[in-house]
Amino acid sequence: MQQLVESIGRYLLAVIGPLIKHPEAAQLRVASTPRGDMVRFRLILKHEDVARVIGRNGMTASAIRSMAKAAGEKQGIKVVVHILSEEELD
Has the keyword RNA-binding been applied to this entry (predicted)? Predict the structure, then answer.
């Protein structure tokens, strides 16, 4: 499972990097269930970058989530991707 988590994490950061103005500020937090059947990725971005990643009508975010979910399903693991701004954490 660790290899899957690392792979999806690299994918997420690689995909959002060109879309955002502040890639150096992007954070990725990962949490999994004790059973290891679900992994949650939290992309934490500058407020102005969140809209860029979500995209028009949420299409970009939907595509990113679909790819991550498909990678997890191959291993029998549910993958959830949340896109948050730094302000939402306060």
Answer: yes
